[in-house]
Amino acid sequence: MLRALIPPASFALLAACASDPTVYPSLAPRPVEKLGFAEPATPPPAPAAQDPALDAKLIAVTTRGDAAARDFDRAAARAETLTRAARGAKVGSDAWIAAQTAIADLDALRSSYGDTVGALDDLASTRAAALQPAYPALEQALAAARAAAEAQTARIHALAGALPGA
Fold this sequence. Notes:
Elements lengths: L1 H16 L34 H35 L7 H36 L6 H27 L4
């Protein structure tokens, strides 16, 4: 019985060895290899929906900030006048002390404007913590407030540097 099974089994083994030796697998890149390793482009962010409550808060904060900026500008004009008057004065003279006091007042006013920047930062961070998209009006107000705060700081440094003994 075993001898009857040997010829069919040998044919099966010989058929496996009878493949064409001239045909090789293709070395061309497969479709998946043509994709590359680059990250896919991120989709554009969805437009932010209008938020009336946030708009009202923005108006309130920017109104306070505008008032603080006006106060700073008035005080800065006064400090510039006093600083010009103190340029030739000695350190510790009345003119020098008046200019130093005016510059110190500017620091306090800059601090009150800094509250505006802080309030806008809080609104932005609260929005980010809630995983909400960026709100263009808030981003613009925050950028403008930061720029104004930096300009105030530069103005104070310029005035302080113009005084004798600085």
